[in-house]
Amino acid sequence: MNLQRTIRNEISTSGIGLHTANLTKITFKPAPINYGIRFVRTDLKDRPEIIASYQNVLGVIRGTTIGLNKEIIVYTVEHLLSALFAFGIDNLIIELDNNEPPVFDGSAKRFVEMIKEAGVIDQCAEKKFIVLEEPVKYFVDDKANAVEITAYPSTEFKVDYSIDYKHPLVGKQHIALTITPENFESEISYARTFCFDYEIESLKRSGLAKGGGLENTIVIGADRIYSTEKLRYENEFVRHKLLDLIGDLALLGRQIKAYI
Ligand code: ZN
Predict the structure, then answer these.
(1) In whole numbers, what is the pLDDT of the chain averaged over residues?
(2) Cα separations in angstroms, 51 against 73, 81, 95, 172, 242
(3) Cα–Cα distance between 196 and 185 in angstroms, integer?
(4) How far does residue 86's CA lie from ligand 1's centre (Å)?
(5) pLDDT per residue as tens digits for the range 212-224
């Protein structure tokens, strides 16, 4: 039997957010069985809670935003949730004293370190999984982009991800992986956020990426890649897309057994 999991010890850190550039202190606290993952905005009156659920998604433009309204909101939850989901954390209190978790280096590396430092523990209750009875398919093609996602029944959580960008420095990239804490840490967690240089002006105009810089985002130019360090994996871009996908799947509210 798989047991529900939380962390052993409370842990905190702080940093600036990718889109808001707000300095935020983030604290993980152990939570009881069947609690789920909840964000607590400690800076707001009555410390409102936002359950990490697809039902609370408010936006998906350049990041996943969840909230209850325009004020009780948390931007860019996907990197943090990706690490928690891969480590099988079912129950956790995430306190934030502002509206966006720190971006750190644009990857999930620091969140993995926090989870490992805090320690993962089993709880005395059976873990609940989403199990598929038949394949589920999503497809959209808006001319600029086409996305196809299919989830098949499986006894474990596996993902096979391909991207095909019409840009010579990205092109076709692929990764297939069974998602375990060990695989996530070594193969996915270091992959950083990226964008194209021609997008930056419109991102800034939309009020996004205020905390973005070469220390947390790989910028892809017409003929070169700009970053404070060289690529961490040859196919770092598809690995980061997989990181984001796992983070969004965490909003299902329970672990999943599927081949995606
Ligand atoms: Zn991302």
Answers:
(1) 96
(2) 11, 12, 12, 36, 23
(3) 26
(4) 15
(5) 999 999 999 999 9
Q: How far is the CA of 1 from the centre of ligand 1 (A)?
A: 32
Task: Report the alpha-carbon distance of residue 246 to residue 159 in Å, rounded.
Answer: 9
Q: What is the distance between the alpha carbons of residues 44 and 67, in angstroms, rounded to a whole number?
A: 13
Q: What is the pLDDT of residues 28-86, one digit of tens each?
A: 999 999 999 999 999 999 999 999 999 999 999 899 999 999 999 999 999 999 999 99
**Token pair of 24, please?**
């935020």
Q: Rounded to an integer, what distance in angstroms lies between the CA atom of residue 187 and that of residue 235? A: 10
195 C-alpha to ligand 1 centroid (Å): 10
Contacts of 13 (CB under 8 A, 6+ apart): 25, 26, 102, 110, 114
Which pair of structure tokens corresponds to residue 133? 């009875």
Strands 129-131 and 255-259: parallel
**Positive/negative CA dihedral, 75, 79, 82, 86:** negative
Q: How far does residue 80's CA lie from ligand 1's centre (Å)? A: 10
Q: How far is the CA of 244 from the centre of ligand 1 (A)?
A: 5
The span from the CA of 192 to the CA of 52, in Å, is: 22
Contact 7, 28 (CB under 8 A): yes
| Distance from residue 245's CA to the centre of ligand 1 (Å) | 9
Spacing, Cα 37 to ligand 1 middle (Å): 19
Q: How far is the CA of 17 from the centre of ligand 1 (A)?
A: 12
Ligand 1 mean position to 85 CA, how many Å? Answer: 15
Question: Whose CA is closest to 238, among 177, 163, 178?
Answer: 163
What's the CA-to-centroid distance between 160 and ligand 1, angstroms?
Answer: 17
